[in-house]
Amino acid sequence: MIKAIFFDLDDTLLWDQKSVKEAFVATCKVAEERYGINAEQLEEAVREAARELYSSYDFYSFTQMIGINPFEGLWGNFADENLEDFRKMKETVPSYRKDAWTAGLKKMGIDNLELGQELAERFPLERRKSPFVYEETFDTLNQLKGNYQLLLLTNGSPELQNTKLEITPELVPYFDQIVISGDFGRGKPDPSIFEHALSLMGLQKDEVIMVGDNLMTDVLGANRAGIKTVWINRHDKERNEVIPTYEIKHLEELFSILEEIKEK
Ligand SMILES: [Mg+2]
Predict the structure, then answer these.
(1) Which helix (H) or strand (E) holds 139?
(2) How far is the CA of 263 from the centre of ligand 1 (A)?
(3) CA triple 231-50-126, angle to 5 deg
(4) Per-domain residue ranges of the chain
(5) What pLDDT, on a 0 to 100 scale, did the predictor assign at position 54?
(6) How much is the pTM?
(7) From CA 158, how far away is CA 162, in angstroms rounded?
(8) pLDDT tens, 22-80?
(9) Where are the extended beta strands (E) located within the chain?
(10) How far, in Å, is the centroid of ligand 1 from the Cα of 233?
(11) Ligand 1 center–CA 258 separation, angstroms
(12) CATH of domain 4-15+132-263
């Protein structure tokens, strides 16, 4: 019998990809208006420069283990003091941002450090102004609340994930527990964070189900911990070798799955 649902946050309940996209659009428009360069091409150039730079830092493997992507590095402050690598990130991100934006501009033929710095500072402000949730998020949580215990299981820097929750404050009250990988010390797909979540709830692995958009973290990790999974695949992504228990396109499909499990 399912007693609790574990939800991933980014791109499961919060539409993070859209928020990042909107922040890029608004920031790149500044350069477009001033220099006539194509905003979309600049976005692509900055994304590429950011990925490349980010993967060159010695804390890169830490970001992968905890689950912090290059675009989160463009707006997070990483003031988390609990782990040494967060301190390194905090020191490095100001220059990372400036260098990524400056390199993107350079690819577009604009050699301008000051503009790079300006856009680097603009992006975090735009990202904070652009929180998006999926249209079905609150309906789904409203229907579940009271019938199931709810736990949020998210990869990332505690400071940054809490910032996301602060700018969408309606989410937090739904959850009995919130687990952030940067607090725990390991991220999904490590089974230990799922076991930690189970122990917080005082539940067994067959009493919960994990819902998430990422096969390689949410589904793989829950599989490893022996927890049933629902893969939310909104964009018709191809499956790989990681097999979810269920696959849905829309969160509301969760209800028929829960009914089906009940009848078994
Ligand atoms: Mg996700």
Answers:
(1) helix 137-144
(2) 29
(3) 80
(4) 4-15+132-263, 16-129
(5) 98
(6) 0.96
(7) 6
(8) 999 999 999 999 999 999 999 999 999 999 999 999 999 999 999 999 999 999 999 99
(9) 4-7, 149-154, 177-180, 208-212, 228-232, 246-248
(10) 11
(11) 21
(12) 3.40.50.1000
